[in-house]
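Thought: the user wants the 3D structure for the chain below. I'll pass the sequence to the structure tool as-is, report back what it returns, then summarize two notable features.
Action: structure_tool
Action Input:
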Amino acid sequence: MRNLKFLVLFIAIALVNCERDDICPASTQTTPRLIVEFYDASDTDELLNVSRITVYGDGLLDDDGNPIIDPIVASDATLLFNEIANRVELPLIVGAEQELITTRFILEKDTDLRLDDDPLTNSNIDIIEISYNTDFVYVSRACGYTNNFKALGITRVTDGDQWITNIEIEETTQALIENENTTHVRIYH
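Observation:
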């Protein structure tokens, strides 16, 4: 009888100390991407599709280790390829905490004009440069850390033929980007 009491007590303690599986739920917020939407420069509240846009990171390499220059087909390296779109989600590089990181993205308008056989037509490429700091936030033992981005800054590399007229960072995201629930950046064209 005495051994039975110890056995029941041992099982009760073991059951109380058990934890649920260490699996991170799919609903848990992960590292956010930068949400960019394209707006009409003359009517700043209206979303405006960009015709045949291609978006990719500057300095990316293809599967063979060669730099990507003017992609001719969609691949894992292109975020958008020759699409009509008014929104793009840009992945940001995660670096050391509090370190200023700068990354560049190429936004090519009218990609179809570059891809056709007519040497008299061409696309228009603008490059944006994004700088930010990384902030690590502990989520749980199962999920580990997520990364938030703060001190966001965006500039446009100037060239002779810009299709982007203005870039605005939303006030709510200037201090911190912690989710993908809202637009972070507006690009006017």
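Final Answer: Structure generated. The beta strands are 34-39, 50-57, 78-85, 87-90, 100-109, 124-140, 144-157, 166-169, 176-177, 185-188. The helical segments are 2-17, 111-115.
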